Amino acid sequence: RSVDNVLGELKLLQDKYHFKSFMFHDDCLTEDRDWVTEFCAKYKAAGFTQKFCCQSRADIISVHEDMVALMAGAGLVGYFIGFESGNDRVLRFIKKGTTRARNIAAAEVCRRHNVFIWANYMLGLPTETEDEIKDTISMLKIIDPDYYSPSFFTPHPGSDLYEYANEK
Question: How far apart are CA 61 and CA 128, in angstroms?
């Protein structure tokens, strides 16, 4: 959806419901930097002051601090981040595209910009050892998220890990 389309909907919701905050329900809003940049500029220019949050990825946050700052300046108050694991081998195994160090760096970026962290992570991934689970716990202690969202691995049909779980 275009930025103007989203802003039009927000205007309608503001007029009808006088909302105080909102969440973007988008798998990863921050993957499209151009869209985010345009949204932040137009959101502020339209006079919106409501706070918002969205999902993002640690690998994006850790290397695009300028975008985090821009979003925070427009009203971003929180990221839901899929850290998934604190162990590099497990992160490679699930093809997450990040590392423990990048996960921690993303949290540091969020802290610098007063953006809350909702940490999503999984336990019980295939091949995961007790020590690797402890790596996730130790990473979470370092990150010290505002909210914890643990989940147990669930193989979903059609995914690589579903096929792996069926084979093994």
Answer: 26
